[in-house]
Automatic annotation (TrEMBL):
Organism, as annotated: Pseudomonas petrae
Name of this protein: UDP-2,4-diacetamido-2,4, 6-trideoxy-beta-L-altropyranose hydrolase
Keywords assigned: Hydrolase
Domain called Glycosyl transferase family 28 C-terminal: residue spans: 250-323
Hydrolase is among the record's keywords: yes
Enzyme Commission number(s) of this protein: 3.6.1.57
Molecular-function annotations in GO: hydrolase activity
């Protein structure tokens, strides 16, 4: 099976789209699939990291002539994007699957891409635009909790996979939960692969009064507050600052409390039963974070732009000293996620391709 993934990463977009696609790609590749990536060369792109992991990559332009905005949800000039992609793979036979994980692309791009692949899959979080695909994945709790959020956006031929049961997590997250201790001893802070919002530094400031806590800060690449954070950590031997880490899973396993955003690590935390204080750093995270809070999965403090530092300090104090609350968060989280989402999606894609090959339907 041959698969092409169209997704981007940048300082503005973040790294979450690539991260979850890479998890699915690794599962597909382990099954024998030839998986490739097509990504724009935006500031902070991850093309080299993908290549270092053995993937064939196709570099697309950082900007198109008609493009006005490179916001995370801004629509791309879809004809220009598709033309650039087609030029990169013009000598390749059609792929079995084209997987698109991009808020800026919709049914127009997906329909026109039929010449590049036999079938198309979309990964989405927003349920705000039409899709022309055979498979759609939305791993968010909001997709499960709301009544048919994609009914108006996909056709009857589309099979939808909705909710955290299908969250794209690495194999190690099929694991036992962490042990909830009477008191919090170690805290892990991370707000994505780039932290353009500067929330790691804001959390560092809020934690200054907690001398008894061991804290790991994973700041991400190109963090806007890098020097200021280094200065603070230099005077705190119980703090450790990482730009990136080769074993984020181990840091999560060792932590008693996570402070972070409402992106892809939400499901990693849930799989581990890791109690979380959540602060959203993008508009598309807010609904999911709020619904999870209402379901008792984590403590949600709202969007970072509206958060007062004192409120974060109060939340840390409360959660650190309430083991019953932390155990409740852990239990509710584990109900949602078992870590086998990537396996389920990979099997569904392979079965669809096999059925088509044997004439049992596309």
């Amino acid at each position: 099976m041959r698969v092409l993934i169209r997704a981007d990463a940048s300082v503005t977009i973040g790294s979450g789209h690539i991260a979850r696609c890479l998890t699915l790609a690794n599962t597909l590749r382990a099954d024998g699939a030839d998986v490739r990536f097509a990504c724009r060369e935006l500031p902070g792109h991850l093309l080299q990291r993908l290549a270092d992991q053995g993937y064939v990559t196709y570099a697309l332009p950082a900007r198109y002539d008609a493009e006005e905005d490179q916001d995370i949800e801004a629509a791309l000039p879809w004809q220009a994007d598709l033309s650039a992609l087609a030029e990169q793979i013009e000598d390749e036979p059609p792929f079995d699957w084209l997987i698109v994980d991009h808020y800026g692309l919709d049914a127009r791009w997906e329909k026109a891409a039929r010449g590049l692949a036999v079938r198309v899959m979309a990964i989405d979080d927003l349920a705000n635009r039409p899709h022309s695909v055979e498979v759609l994945l939305d791993q968010n709790y909001s997709a499960q909790a709301l009544d048919q959020p994609y009914a108006a956006w996909v056709g009857p031929e589309c099979r939808t996979f909705l909710g955290p049961r299908f969250a794209l997590l690495r194999d190690e997250f099929q694991c036992e939960p962490i042990v909830i201790k009477p008191r919090v001893e170690r805290v892990l802070v991370n707000f994505g692969g780039f932290d353009a919002a500067g929330q790691v530094y804001a959390t560092m400031q809020a934690l200054q009064g907690f001398a008894d806590l061991q804290v790991d800060f994973v700041a991400g690449l190109h963090n806007p507050n890098g020097q200021a954070m280094n200065d603070l950590v230099a005077s705190r031997p119980e703090w450790r600052l990482h730009a990136l880490t080769g074993d984020f899973f181990a840091l999560m396993q060792a932590a008693d409390l996570f402070i972070g955003a409402g992106g892809g690590t939400t499901w990693e935390r849930a799989a581990l039963g890791l109690p979380t204080i959540c602060i959203t750093v993008a508009n598309n995270q807010q609904l999911n974070a709020q619904l999870l809070a209402e379901a008792g999965v984590h403590l949600y403090l709202g969007a970072h732009v509206q958060l007062e530092p004192g409120r974060l300090r109060e939340a840390i104090e409360r959660v650190c000293h309430d083991a019953v609350l932390r155990q409740s968060y852990a239990d509710q989280s584990r109900v949602l996620v078992d870590g086998r989402g990537a396996r389920r999606i990979a099997d569904a894609l392979a079965a669809r391709a096999d059925n088509a090959a044997t004439g049992q339907g596309a």
